[in-house]
Amino acid sequence: MATAQSERIFVLPGDQIDPSLIPSHPKKALRLGPGLRHIPPNELVPTVAGQLVTDPRKNSIWVEYNGGRYVPTVGDLVIGTVHHSATDYFYVTLSSYTSNAILPQLAFEMATKKTRPNLNPGALVYARVCLANRHMDPELECVSPSTGKADGLGPLNGGMLFEISLGMARRLLMRKSVEEGKVVVLEELGAAGLAFETAVGRNGKIWVNSEKTKTVLLVGRAVKETDEKSLTVDQQKKLVRKLVREMS
Amino acid sequence: MPREAEPSLNERAFVVQALQEGLRVDGRAFDQYRQLELKFGEQYGVADVTLGKTRILVKVSAEVTTPYTDRPFDGIFTITTELSPMASPAFEVNRPTETEVLLSRLLEKTVRRSNALDTESLCLVAGQKCWSIRVDLHVLSHDGNLIDVSCFAVVAALRHFRKPDTSIEGGHLTVYTPAEREPVPLSWLHSPFCVTFSFYGEGEITILDANLLEEQLRVSSCTISLNRHGEICQIAKLGGTPVEAATLLQCASVALNKVKEFSTLLDQKLAEDAKRRNKGGLLAELSAENER
């Protein structure tokens, strides 16, 4: 975790947050992450139970929790299923029982009116959330608006989708997922000589593809088991060894 | 209106591809059930069954009522199923989905019409008083294969249930509390169980105990209800891709093996529960029931 504090601080919804915990940066404005609510003029209230995390360098504060429902936030990488398409948009399902997100048909790399991709209902896309307001449908994009490059986003072909918890998805997406997120399962599988590719969606999905069906199943099972049984680093290594032995 | 996300094209293609290679997504064998667990409640007639992530709670209750006028010698036996929004937000209260209707009809056919419970034994005073046995089934979590688990739970709960003891003296009916007389079990004739087969491809791939994803992708399914003596109560194959007769015959023999396993598990659990309740071995003395 990016926090400098030695001990973890847990909060419950409606708790008072000790003002000494809130980072104060001379220049940057305070950024509130998920799980916190600002009540004007100057009150911060947690809305979920979890660990309070602060980052003094970015002047940000948020609550880490392993909640059930995905709430889109700008900048999240997500895996969605195309529900249907209209003239200018694809309507994409991010999670069950929520309204569809919209993905403009021109928000793909090198897409013009003539070359835009043709996605059938049920196709998977890896996209970034570019607009997420509380009472509006979120908007997605598969291209970086500044460079015009896809950066790995776009339709996902083949492979299999596995459901994981939101906390696991966040850990897998961390820049230093091994040190900070304590997930080594994918690295270990790669080191065991398996060839596969993955895409992790912040909405609790992981897409795995490989030439061999067995490899896909093995990777999916390893990640899901790590998630469900919240395995430690050593246990993950052991699990990978066991699964690889069973397969060969 | 809340709607469940449907499986993507990738998942559809992959699951079928894997099945054709002889693999299942959760790593089970084709004829392997998930871990089946059965717990009885503190009260008689409460069964809590989990199969993987599917969980079902069944409660049996009894009350004295007047019998139907066209059946004066029979008691009343009803099974009500409820798929609450707790199992999945796609289920709405008071608006039964197709799953719910099929489930309750299948249970009806399996348990009620196969005469597993002897309804004549529920009669107290002909045409005037009888027991009404009511089975309430609640789906707490839905991860596929509701039918098999529900049937197992209903049978388990009914066999675990004890109704208050009664006596009739000079046309006067007395219902005893559990403190006065030990409650008596229902007169149970045989234990039918359901085994559901799911078919894939052109109907040549057969798997048992499909989870929710597999259930959504199957091309057809077939439910066979039978007891451990191999007496088939019903076979339901509602539409879908046609399946070869030889496959169905094979399914029936697989089902028999599975039913024997269920039956053994249930007997064992019932025996364990009876032992737990029978502290000091006094239950036999407390019972006022005559041997049949």
From TrEMBL, chain A:
InterPro entries xref list: Exosome_RNA_bind1/RRP40/RRP4, KH_dom_type_1, KH_dom_type_1_sf, NA-bd_OB-fold, RRP40_KH-I, Rrp40_N_euk, Rrp40_S1
Sequence ranges assigned to domain Exosome complex exonuclease Rrp40 N-terminal in this UniProt record: 30-69
Gene Ontology BP, a term: poly(A)-dependent snoRNA 3'-end processing
Residue stretches spanning the membrane: none
Compartment list: Cytoplasm; Nucleus, Nucleolus
Gene3D superfamilies xrefs: 2.40.50.100, K Homology domain, type 1, Nucleic acid-binding proteins
GO molecular function, one term: RNA binding
Keyword Nucleus: yes
Species annotation: Daldinia eschscholtzii
Protein name: Ribosomal RNA-processing protein 40
Similarity comment: Belongs to the RRP40 family.
UniProt entry keywords in alphabetical sequence: Cytoplasm, Exosome, Nucleus, RNA-binding, rRNA processing
Cellular component, GO, one term: cytoplasmic exosome (RNase complex)
Pfam families (UniProt xref): KH_6, Rrp40_N, RRP40_S1
Residue span(s) of domain K Homology: 159-213
Main subcellular location of this protein, as a coarse class: cytoplasm
UniProtKB/TrEMBL annotation, chain B:
GO-annotated cellular components: cytoplasmic exosome (RNase complex); nuclear exosome (RNase complex); nucleolus
Protein name: Exosome complex component RRP45
CDD domains, alphabetized: RNase_PH_RRP45
Keyword Nucleus included in the entry's annotation: yes
Species of the source: Daldinia eschscholtzii
Keyword flag Transcription: no
Lineage summary: Eukaryota, Fungi, Dikarya, Ascomycota, Pezizomycotina
Family label: Belongs to the RNase PH family.
GO BP field: exonucleolytic trimming to generate mature 3'-end of 5.8S rRNA from tricistronic rRNA transcript (SSU-rRNA, 5.8S rRNA, LSU-rRNA); nuclear mRNA surveillance; nuclear polyadenylation-dependent rRNA catabolic process; rRNA catabolic process; TRAMP-dependent tRNA surveillance pathway; U1 snRNA 3'-end processing; U4 snRNA 3'-end processing; U5 snRNA 3'-end processing
Pfam families for the chain: RNase_PH, RNase_PH_C
Coiled-coil intervals, chain numbering: none
